[in-house]
Amino acid sequence: MRANNNIIHESENQVVEWKESWQDKYLEWICGYANAQGGTLYIGIDDSGSVLGLESKTVKKLLEDIPNKITAAFGITCDVNLKINNKKKYIQIDVKKSRLPLNLHGRYFYRTGSVKKEITGFELTEFIIKSTGTSYDELTSDIPREKLTFESFRKRYLKATRMPLEFDDDLVSFKFIKEDGQMTNARILFADQWNIHHSRIFVQGRMA
What we know:
CATH superfamily of the largest domain: Schlafen, AAA domain
CATH class of the largest domain: Alpha Beta
Shape: elongated
Distance between the termini: 68 Å
Order of helices and strands: EHEHEEEEHHHHH
Number of helices: 7
Helix content: 25-40%
CATH architecture of the largest domain: 2-Layer Sandwich
Mean pLDDT: 81
């Protein structure tokens, strides 16, 4: 098996990264590629593009370990292949773009330009919404439910329907609470304390 010699002349870029040896922290790079447009990680090549090569025993172990680590971390499969350049062995890991956001131990990474970055906060919210097509109010809220009250909503509901609010059952149907009991952002918007946690949002068609 022979690799294309051009690899040593190709610069690292948004979809190509070289590493001299494997470290488990490179799962972050794989996560970043999958969350972006995909990419290829090479093991056994230095930053200048020179193929350093890997020992045969190391190659054999990595060809078994890397696919297992990727599947265990993300539940996906990547093509992990042996390559040879001038009798020097290295490994090529091809990562495809994921249809859903991937995280590594709860942390989300994204490949942009030639760097890997962790995405958090509002940027992460925007990324998840864009990737999944999920609306903001369907996302799980991190505000404890015991910190919120809904007296105003109860009164408005009773006035509009002339029926008392069956709290837990009705809130699931309103998508204020998920089936597993987690609270969504939609519920925050109707809480008495909504102005503490969110800027007010007016959505056409909701109860005013």
